[in-house]
Amino acid sequence: MFKADSKAARTSASKIGQAHELLDKLSQEYDKIIVYTISMYLSSQYSFFKTIENDFPKIVVVNSKSIAFLTVMQLLNFENKLKDVKSEEEFEALLVGLEKTDQYSVSLVPKYNNFLVKGGRLSPQAALLAKLLNIVPIIKFENGELKKEGKGRIFERVVTKVIQDKLSEDFNPNKNDVVLLHSNNLQINSFKNKLTKKYNVNCYVFNIPSVVAIHTGPEALVVIKMPKMNAHLVKKLKSINLIS
């Protein structure tokens, strides 16, 4: 299990040979191949596929600005709208829609700063000072990038404050949902129960994918305010065990 003292965990981009082999195979089977990676600003995978895009006339590498749950939502919405596409122009417009993520308000609260240091998101000096002073950073995910949002003290208090802030940002329970992402945080049910009881809103829980959790660190928690999901989408997400 991924823990605070884990040291061997790491990620890497696809191997060139394997990528070429897969794209060759898909090019023989399909008219269009959509490559949708983790945000273009956070992953070398995007740059890698852009460099070989011209070698495969059928592939389109989307300028992705999403990650984790946002990626799932973007692709499910894309799939749902694709069946109504009747022209190349409509298809191109649908691809552009995959780049749009400003409908989500996303804040990350890491519990262990050393994983941010490993990923180059925080300097070792800043991490040491934060540990000594018990400072917890708040990082927002905006337009595909990680940016400084604020800071606080004591992880639980910071998470509670972030939730309060999200629900005061013109939040409308008839138009918005709240999603909590986490990487094996044992307090997740407590946070969810307090949120739903206090604010009487829908709150869904989703795991941070392992390739992302390696960088956010174990027990990290993300709070998302997003447009309200329809019943069909919620049912589909639950049927594939992506939310609870």
Automatic annotation (TrEMBL):
<dbReference type="Pfam" id="PF02645">
    <property type="entry name" value="DegV"/>
</dbReference>
<dbReference type="GO" id="GO:0008289">
    <property type="term" value="F:lipid binding"/>
</dbReference>
<dbReference type="InterPro" id="IPR050270">
    <property type="entry name" value="DegV_domain_contain"/>
</dbReference>
<protein>
    <submittedName>
        <fullName>Fatty acid-binding protein DegV-like protein</fullName>
    </submittedName>
</protein>
<dbReference type="InterPro" id="IPR003797">
    <property type="entry name" value="DegV"/>
</dbReference>
<dbReference type="InterPro" id="IPR043168">
    <property type="entry name" value="DegV_C"/>
</dbReference>
<keyword id="KW-0446">Lipid-binding</keyword>
